[in-house]
Amino acid sequence: MTEAKYKKIETILKQRIIDQTYPLNSLLPKELELAQEFKTSRPTINHAIHNLVQEGLLEQRKRLGTIVRRNKIQQEFTHLIQSYNQEMSTKGLKTKTKVLYFQKVVPNSEVQTEFNISTSDSVFKLIRLRYVDNHPIVKVTTYVPVSLVPDLEKINFSTASLYLELKKRNLAVTHVVRKLEVKKASSEIAQKLAIKENDPVFCFRTRGYTNKDQKIEYSIATYRGDMNSFIIDLKR
């Protein structure tokens, strides 16, 4: 058994778990079947499976077999103020951002209330789809008053961080208030996040404030429920 052989098989099995070729809670094919597929020995397959069990992606149960237990991404979003890319990079994950929409718009009634503005004022509306390892993880819709950052439209947010750009303009977000709801995915959200309609999603509404207690950001972030978990760190 060579290291290259079992590592290659381990990588292939891991990718099948991530892309749901092997769905969550399904049984992994038997070792003999995998050995035949990869034209290798059962010990080689066993070694690859053992590593994925240690990683938390698989679980072995007596008299049942090996079950897919895909790890969720642990988000510190609930108690840290940092950019998405910054948080994911600390976990060693590869990220990508796709900008779905970025325009100046007339604020709807909800956004007017959030910023205490009227329809005569404009806001930037930024919609981004954030990926981890090429899988869509969260859709984020963000509003920022144009009067506070009029030059924001020059920024390419497929690569730039909103929080960093605000910091450059002396409008750093230093305090946030977040409200969490668990909802069923709409057809539009399901399509964007590559999940099924009515699957559970985490919906966070974030109000971001500067050190002068000025509201600078209002965001709605919808995370897919099957690939995310959130850490709540409380101190007394």
TrEMBL record:
**Protein name stated in the entry:** GntR family transcriptional regulator
Q: Name one GO molecular function term.
A: DNA binding
Q: Which UniProt keywords apply?
A: DNA-binding, Transcription, Transcription regulation
HTH gntR-type domain sequence ranges = 3-71
PROSITE patterns this protein is in?
HTH_GNTR
The species this protein belongs to is Lactobacillus gasseri
Keyword Transcription regulation carried by entry: yes
Set out the biological process GO terms recorded for this chain's protein: negative regulation of DNA-templated transcription
InterPro entries from the UniProt entry:
Bact_HTH_transcr_reg, Chorismate_lyase_/UTRA_dom_sf, Tscrpt_reg_HTH_GntR, UTRA, WH-like_DNA-bd_sf, WH_DNA-bd_sf
